[in-house]
Amino acid sequence: MAMSKGxxxxxxxxxxSPHSVILEHRNKSETLLFESxxxxxxxxxxxDAIRRQYVKIADxxxxxxxxxxxxGETSVLFLVLVTGCFSVxxxxxxxxFRITQxxxxxxxxxxxxxxxxxxxxxxxxxxxxxxxxxxxxxxQQVFDITICAQRKRRTTETDNRFFWNRMLHIHLMRxxxxxxxxxxxxVCGSVEIRTVYAGSRQARAAIIxxxxxxxxxxxxxxxxxxxxxxxxxxxxxxxxxxxxxxVTSYVQTRGSVPLFWEQPGVQVxxxxxxxxxxxxxxxxxxxxxxxxxxxxxxxxxIVNLLGTSLIGSKEGEAMLSNEFQRxxxxxxxxxxxxxxxxxxxxxxxxxxxxxxxxxxxxxGMCAPFGLFFAADDEIMREQRGVIRTNCLDCLxxxxxxxxxxxxxxxxxxxxxxxxxDKKQMLSRFExxxxxxxxxxxxxxSKIYAGTGAIQGGSKLMDGARSAARTIQNNLLDNSKQExxxxxxVGSTLSSELADRARILLPxxxxxxxxxxxxEMCMRYxxxxxxxxxxxxxxxxNVNGGKHFRSVVYKDVSLADWLLDxxxxxxxxSLVDVTYDTSPEEEGIPIDIFAVGFQEIVDLNxxxxxxxxxxxxxxxxxxxxxxxxxxxxYVLLTSQQLVGVCLFVFVRPEQAQYIRDVAVDSVxxxxxxxxxxxxxxxxxxxxxxxxxxxxxxxxxxGQSQVTERNADYAEITRKIAFPMGRSLKSHDYxxxxxxxxxxxxxxxxxxxDYVQQGxxxxxxxxxxxxxxxxxxQVFGEFLEGxxxxxxTYKYDLFSDDYDxxxxxxxxxxTDRVLWKRRKPHPDADKSPDWxxxxxxxxxxxxxKQSDHRPVIxxxxxxxxxxxxxxxxxxxxxxMSDLGPPDAxxxxxxxxxxxxxxxxxxxxxxxxxxxxxxxxxxxxxxxLVRYVGETMWEIPKPREPAPVLPPQPNDVYDLDSTPxxxxxxxMPPSAAPPPLPMRRNAPPPIPDGNGSGGIGSDR
Length: 1001
What we know:
Layout: E1 7-12, E2 20-25, E3 28-35, E4 38-42, H1 44-50, E5 54-60, E6 62-71, E7 74-91, E8 94-106, H2 114-124, E9 129-134, H3 149-152, H4 166-173, H5 179-182, E10 187-198, E11 201-211, E12 235-243, E13 246-254, E14 261-262, E15 274-275, H6 279-297, E16 300-304, H7 315-329, E17 338-340, H8 343-346, H9 355-366, E18 372-375, E19 378-381, E20 386-390, H10 396-416, H11 423-449, H12 459-489, H13 496-504, H14 514-522, E21 528-541, H15 558-562, H16 565-572, H17 583-586, E22 592-598, H18 605-609, H19 614-627, E23 634-641, E24 644-650, H20 652-655, E25 658-669, E26 674-686, E27 689-697, H21 705-718, E28 720-721, E29 725-726, E30 732-738, H22 747-756, H23 760-763, H24 767-773, E31 814-820, E32 837-843, E33 854-865, H25 867-881, E34 888-891, H26 908-918, E35 924-930, E36 933-938, E37 997-999
Parallel strand pairs: 13-20, 16-17, 16-20, 21-22, 27-30
Antiparallel strand pairs: 1-2, 1-5, 2-3, 3-4, 6-7, 7-8, 8-9, 9-10, 10-11, 11-12, 12-13, 13-18, 14-15, 18-19, 21-33, 22-24, 23-24, 25-26, 26-27, 28-29, 30-31, 32-33, 34-36, 34-37, 35-36
Helix pairs in contact: 2-12, 10-11, 13-14, 14-25
Keywords: Hydrolase
EC number: 3.1.3.36
GO molecular function, one term: phosphatidylinositol-4,5-bisphosphate 5-phosphatase activity
């Protein structure tokens, strides 16, 4: 049966009471009713009773589901229809279609978020999405394009890695709608199908590439791995031949290097690579990816095509390749074969015969992998391993190598099908597969890079595609990335509530209704346990150098600042200070070090335009060496903006609990045009708590107070992280740096007070404190008591304040402040609440700069999540929420057949009085009789929350959740809604009710 526009969408003629849409299918008597953000299944009779109120608005080939977008605290829903597609070929009873046109039908009166919807529509219409449709009328969704031929013999469960519109199914699953019939499953990638004649028989030859949606995105927005071990541009490619009832299949994979890395800046043919996390911080995610590959494919071999030259344009590639090999060598999966093959060097000048060397190196390792072959219903051979190929982008070089492997295995596939007797048969298949591999490479490249593959054939074409990639990647990819995120996540989730939910809840709970998320966040204390964490934040204006290499350090060390500052301070403090720290607590190691530098390079014109990272690398190595004197520390990540540089180091045992690491920087020099002044920021989540560190360098000058205030405001406003996270959205914010706030006193008077050890008279004139008290900067931030002399400005290698001609006045320019976000306004009134306990705040006597370094040590609490308790609270919240459409259930006590007579609850007079009473809650739109109960549905006063699938059954996207009847049954668990029918005879009750009238709200 050829596919046609079998779906029809009808919309209610007369809004606004309430907005309603019906979805029909020509081969099914039942229809779907979308109303009040709920979904119900209507019988043919019930549809006929209300159909005259509706008018057709669209015809479609299929439906992808319901897309949910957050609009503030409410959600807007769109029915996503496939209105254009064409067949790319048949496989057995199934036909595969490419989506070319979609239509979004709003399930509200107003069409909201049109700009975002248009980008998602553009993505779906790009020609890289496919679905399979069974041509047999018996079952229209038997063939699942998300799983390869070998997996089809083992399971019918959809592979969620390649199920791109799975979140669009959630809304219908909440109401137990049969998604297998009503909705399509779409994959993103490439499908090439050809018919090859083998004598009197027809073989279906296909190459199917399935792009994973677990870490999907565009070339420069998504690189490397995420915290769960999913890598960018991960593609499973299947070379398969169907001949009558026989099938043979061979699967290969590609994927980005499974480390945290990126390519910063505007890219014009650049291979510059930056590792965004340190070795230890990457180990957990790397191991997860390696274990995942073993679990999914049993065994695998890595073919690493990155360049190996440490000089020239490929230096970044070589560094990335070396880190890949290093991680692999030290991982639990070091037994996995890892072949390094410098493709550009080996295949220089288009010498594809060099790939024979690669084949020879792999033959012994990959011999056990084999391929899949089934004759009739019997599995004759299985593929027991895959080759995982990668280059930098996993595009052009990977395409060539995978094509080579595919054509090499083709002869064996032909032999298994019994077609190897004739040489021309192999030639015929080779010719077909060569062209399909070229097309496949182009399609996969378009998804990730925006253009077809660069194949080395035509220099003119390859040059044009390279230029197009540059434009696409640097100018157009951000909107495409947002569209991908919306499609996969199912919502933009950019509100503060959504961000809090992402921190506390697993991904499968994030699709619950807004009221559920809000309640789960409010009740977080029931499933988290406070866990102590010690944080040290240091700041140092180093005046443009790597001073730790100076001979002056023979008597002092960075350890005096980073490790021993609190001990040395007790003997050198100008005032008496008592810290709430016992001797036992002094031995507690610091869990997280955040160290910020200013002027890490000279602020000259060349560095402002393109600052070197050499000093930053040297400081990172020295800091790690010094910090690890007693306890090991690993670099989590760093961020540099010209002279401002921020490092975060953590204890290795804490690294496994850290996720969602992100960095940002803000320029404030010359009105935001240059980075000689500005800030670097690093954020992450540890356990269930978000932390952000900021290192800043504000405008200099005694009188430039307004400019410094403006720098603070600009940095606060502009710092932004993925998924809409801002500075204020974090649980803790630590802000350090050279803020350059001065002291409004005569410099000689300041020096006299310092010499006498009297700091309080000076602090009364401190510009930062005055501006903070006036509410201009650092609102709600805390700072420890200042018990140390001003940190600026000294003569180099001296204890003397500035004796130069300018003779600048001393000042506390170098500061550390922090704040903790309150979960609710009255949180600080709780006896258990604390903003963080200051352990030490002081400076160190390192004299290689005109500044003295400062450090603050603070004990904080992070939220350790108990997953069992969280699941329990989630069930309670779902139960307390009640039915999704504000349904009130009326039941009778001791109902029997005799109760149907005069005076029973089903008597028309009693029914009328009951409905009039219930109508006070809201307009009664539907009444339904369900077994021994009557369901009354008022018109909701505000968008009603949608009941997600229950925790135990919901997120299994391969089955329809089954729910037993309960007081808060969803509409789909009962007969579909009917127009109000008071005269219809109610069903005979066959059980005892709970009695009375009540709302499940």
